[in-house]
Specification:
Length: about 260
């Protein structure tokens, strides 16, 4: 989960900037957490305390109303709606990472990812994006190879993962759909050599940078065994006491561990 938060913060200044290079400073004075972090921590809070997803998402939105939410989600929270709005956007995937740590079977993770998504993103693509992301994280933390992760995601979710970043990058544009950003984020992880490289890969596509770095970073954290201490410390220092406290409580209860499936 921390890998998602760190990716979001690093990517925050690149959203809309069409960054097409991997050469950039990880942190600048403008680096900040966005809705990706807020909602990831909201899901973690829900799982930690067995709280209703809708209630917690509303609560965190109203506590952090200026974090950069999408328009439909903003209205959903503003009016405290309890009905989903059939979204296929990548918001379901950006917030799902805690789900991959609270269960010890892939099918349980997939079912929980669906539950976390469908309170807003009940479109099949919205659910698929959340499940694919959670599955990749779970497979990574349970010792699967990149080949195994690629094969599973392609077969189960029919995401095409055989393009390279070099092939994607020249024409890729800002895209908020699950089907147009989650596969590319997974490829950014698959081509990476370490956590930092995964985040740089995702941002270098020039798309929805914070969300794609959030997704790629979440998978990379699980695969590479964590986030480098210096990067982690810097990013967590940019959270307020409430967000940092929930994140630390979640990691304390569900520490990174590599287990066999």
């Amino acid at each position: 989960m921390l890998g998602a938060i760190v990716g979001d913060i690093i990517g925050s200044v690149h959203e809309g900037a069409r960054t097409k290079t991997k050469q950039f400073p990880l942190f600048v004075p403008e680096s900040t957490f966005t809705d990706d972090t807020v909602l990831t921590i909201a899901i973690a809070d829900s799982l930690l305390n067995d709280r209703d997803y809708v209630d917690v998402l509303h609560e965190y939105f109203h506590a952090y109303p200026n974090a950069g939410y999408g328009g439909t989600f903003f209205r959903w929270c503003t009016y405290r709606s309890r009905e989903p709005y059939n979204s296929w956007g990548n918001g379901s995937a950006m917030r799902v990472s805690p789900v991959a740590y609270v269960h010890d079977s892939l099918e349980e993770v997939l079912e929980e990812a669906k539950r976390s998504a469908e309170v807003t993103h009940n479109h099949e693509h919205g659910i698929c994006g959340a499940q694919a992301t959670a599955a990749a994280i779970f497979l990574a933390r349970t010792g699967c190879s990149k080949v195994e992760i690629r094969q599973y995601i392609q077969k189960r979710f029919e995401y095409y993962l055989d393009e390279t970043l070099a092939e994607i990058r020249p024409t890729y544009q800002f895209e908020v759909s699950c089907q147009g950003s989650v596969p590319q984020s997974i490829i950014a992880f698959l081509e990476s050599t370490n956590y930092e490289d995964a985040v740089r890969n995702a941002i270098s596509l020039g798309g929805d940078a914070d969300t794609m770095a959030c997704i790629a970073g979440a998978i990379a954290e699980a695969f590479y065994g964590g986030v480098p201490d210096e990067i982690r410390t810097k990013a967590l220092g940019l959270l307020d006491e409430r967000l940092r406290g929930v994140a630390e409580d979640f990691v304390a209860r569900y520490p990174f561990r590599r287990t066999a499936i």
